[in-house]
Write a structure and sequence with these properties.
The chain is α/β, with parallel strands linked by helices. It has a single domain, classed as SGNH hydrolase (Rossmann fold, 3-Layer(aba) Sandwich). Helix content is about 45%, strand content about 10%. The protein has 9 helices and 5 strands, in the order H-E-H-E-H-H-E-H-H-E-H-H-E-H. Strands 2-1-3-4-5 form a 5-stranded parallel sheet, sandwiched between helices. The longest helix has 30 residues. The protein is globular, with a radius of gyration of 20 Å. The chain starts with 5 loop residues before the first helix and ends in a 5-residue tail after the last helix.
Length: about 290
């Protein structure tokens, strides 16, 4: 008899949860096809989105599965206009998001005729690669750079992880081109995470403050400056990718939106109101792309 490890148990639970999400989404598609939602005076049919990514698209705030993330709020607020198949799961970095199993799941659902035709891919990825538990890897020892936060980043190492993130986005674009040609991708740049030493539920984290303290950085403002500099480079990377029209990738600039005091639930995740602020930016860009349909 095979004995499952806690990690394997968790993976099985995640896959079961995703399977249930697919079935719920397909039920909505079937109902929409049967009832052919057109409404009065030519009201357009619902938009169908497939979402994938990390905790900003799938953020549980309790052991009971309560969620406040971008996709949860979008689904609730615009359920009369948007169907969303959410494949995102908290904790995933882009290397995991486009690893074999996640890649196969995304391709499978893009090809599944029971899901109908998707109008866009919503993607949240890259933040965990930079600002996760491994943040210390991109940070210089404070004493080695004269305690100057402007030199706080180990640029060679940070460039390496940015190249990995770039490759992940390039692969996402190729998957879209191969299996859902023509539909746009929407992604975002998070916001300037805060090194306040507060972790998420179930003793997950903190991530940033320990990394910076390990490297000898003491002042809070210095820590903030180092994190901001790293995330601004991530912002520039996505801006560069989106600047090529052939990529059909819509980059939603979200850095600088959140109030650093009131809009963060912990080091890496906004409060419900913080996520709503980010959602507002998504909706603004989606309305431009799909006028009159949201």
């Amino acid at each position: 008899m095979t004995t499952l490890t806690p990690e394997k148990d968790l993976q099985n639970l995640i896959q079961t949860d995703l399977d249930n999400r697919v079935l719920e989404y397909q039920k909505k598609i079937q109902e929409m096809q049967i009832n052919a939602f057109e409404g009065d005076f030519g009201t357009p049919t619902k938009l169908n989105f497939i979402a994938d990514g990390d905790s900003w698209f799938d953020y549980p705030t309790s052991a009971f599965g309560n969620r406040t993330d971008i996709i949860t709020q979008m689904d609730k607020k615009f359920s009369n206009r948007i169907n969303i198949l959410n494949l995102a799961h908290y904790g995933n970095a882009t290397t995991q998001l486009l690893g074999v199993s996640k890649r196969q799941r995304l391709i499978k659902e893009l090809q599944n005729n029971n899901n109908g035709k998707f109008d866009a891919i919503l993607f949240s990825g890259g933040g965990n690669d930079i600002a996760g538990d491994q943040f210390c890897l991109w940070v210089n020892e404070a004493t080695s750079v004269g305690n100057n936060p402007k030199k706080g980043l180990n640029q060679v190492r940070l460039n390496n992880v940015l190249d990995i993130i770039k490759s992940a986005y390039e692969d996402l674009i190729k998957i879209r081109n191969d299996y859902a040609a023509g539909i746009p991708i929407f992604t975002h740049g998070y916001d300037f995470a805060i090194p306040n030493g507060v972790g998420a539920m179930c003793d997950i984290g903190p991530w940033l403050e320990p990394s910076l303290s390990l490297r000898g950085w003491i002042g809070y403002n210095d820590k903030v400056e180092i994190i901001k500099a790293a995330l601004q480079q991530f912002d520039q990377l996505l801006a560069d990718i989106s600047s090529d029209p052939a990529n059909n990738l819509n980059y939603i600039h979200t850095q600088g939106i959140l109030n650093p005091v009131t809009d963060w639930d912990n080091e890496l995740h906004p409060t419900k109101d913080g996520f709503r602020r980010i959602l507002d930016k998504f909706i603004y860009e989606l309305k431009i792309k799909f006028p009159g349909r949201i």
